[in-house]
Design a protein that fits this description.
Blueprint lengths: L1 H22 L4 H19 L17
């Protein structure tokens, strides 16, 4: 019964979201902003900011 309720709730959310997108589409500026933000995140997530060190140490490790 719980699974049926969850499935029905998910379908209702999907349908209401789809109707919202069809009746109130994004403005062109908002769409461009979202695309710019996703491009920015894609570019910055590719950069590796971890630098190699000569001597690796672990915090809290005794040896």
């Amino acid at each position: 019964m719980q699974k049926r309720i969850e499935t029905a709730y998910t379908k209702d959310r999907y349908i209401s979201h789809k109707i919202l997108l069809e009746t109130q589409p994004f403005l062109k500026n908002e769409t461009n902003f979202i695309l710019d933000a996703s491009q920015f995140l894609r570019e910055n997530s590719k950069k590796d900011t971890i630098k190699n060190t000569e001597k690796a140490t672990g915090i809290g490790v005794r040896g």
